[in-house]
Amino acid sequence: MAKMYQLSSRTAEKNQSLYVSRDPEVAGSIVRNEEGAFAYSEVFMDKQKNYWFSKKVDDQSRDHKLFTFDHKNGCLKSQVIKGQPNFYEFESSVVVACEGDGSKGSVLIFSKDGPELVKEWKVNGFLWEVEMNQDVLYISSYIVEEDQAVLYIIRNGKKKRINLGSNMAPTDILCHEDLVYVSGAPVLNGDPKKIMVLNDKDKVVTEYKLSISPRALYQVDDQLLVYELDLATGKSERIVYIDMKTGEQKEHDIPHSKIVECTDDSLSLLEQNSKTLYTWDHCKCRIVNTQKVADQTQVI
């Protein structure tokens, strides 16, 4: 399931020090002891300089111990959680999405002041993505038993479930103005491949059918940039720009690579085997720079 690693925000040029997203490829780093056993996950720091990391309780258990170092008071706090945690930082909070046993997970909301646990929410299925917009929390999951992609919306202390469709993993969430964009990729080969657009009443008002399997969404000016990742094959060689006003789509081939950063001007792509970093220009719609990177360079 998900690996912990840092990403640029879904909206270009928006600075966030802590963000995670689901990806079937290996990402992030794990600290191991001399025997090669799992020790601790990578340590992340939020904007208030609190540190977050985790450790698996033991090899036979799904339980993890979540550690938080309170920078202001200089103390280390810990608690046991179910399943591997994934960390997301937002303006006033850090959200920890715990994968649970695959049939049910939990989402813990922490204030960054303390930091203290504010609320825990239970959700069904495999957790895929978490996003927050104007104090509304969006959580996507895939429920195997029902073959159902689901979007949970937590607003004013209440949880609402929206069914999005079957044979589909809800791979990413992007909020723009009063609309919520959710990408759907087929669990197996074939369809559906699409972007669903929900209004402020939580209703799907528009769908964009795609020729690629969407993994990640980015906002670039008035365009939606869709990054391909076929969940079955691991293929990631195309991107699509969608005009948010007209719905017009333009598809482009890119090197087999992973997105490192997306800004208003360009896309940074890393081909991990050859350690090649490509810079894709949004306006010219082509690679404008290629360079080799050091072996120890980490994809974030």
Strand order of the largest sheet: 3-4-5-6
Spans where pLDDT lies below 50 across 5 or more residues: 1-38, 296-300
Helix content: under 10%
Alpha carbon gyration radius = 19 Å
**Count the strands?**
26
β-sheet strand percentage: over 45%
- Could you say which overall geometry the principal axes of the C-alpha atoms support? globular
Blueprint (SSEs and pairs):
Layout: E1 30-32, E2 38-41, E3 44-45, E4 51-56, E5 63-70, E6 75-82, E7 85-89, E8 93-98, E9 104-111, E10 116-124, E11 126-133, E12 136-143, E13 148-155, E14 158-165, E15 168-176, E16 179-186, E17 194-198, E18 204-209, E19 214-220, E20 223-228, E21 238-243, E22 249-253, E23 258-262, E24 266-271, E25 276-281, E26 286-292
Antiparallel strand pairs: 1-2, 3-4, 4-5, 5-6, 7-8, 8-9, 9-10, 11-12, 12-13, 13-14, 15-16, 16-17, 17-18, 19-20, 20-21, 21-22, 23-24, 24-25, 25-26
Describe this structure in words.
There is one protein chain. This protein is 0% helix and 56% strand. A hairpin with a 7-residue loop joins strand 16 (179-186) and strand 17. The chain is globular, with a radius of gyration of 19 Å. It starts with 29 loop residues before the first strand and ends in an 8-residue tail after the last strand. Mean pLDDT is 84; it is low at 1-38 and 296-300. The chain is mostly beta strands. The strands form 7 sheets. The chain has a 4-stranded antiparallel β-sheet with strand order 3-4-5-6, with no helix packed on it. Strands 7-8-9-10 form a 4-stranded antiparallel β-sheet, with no helix packed on it. It has a 4-stranded antiparallel β-sheet with strand order 11-12-13-14, with no helix packed on it.
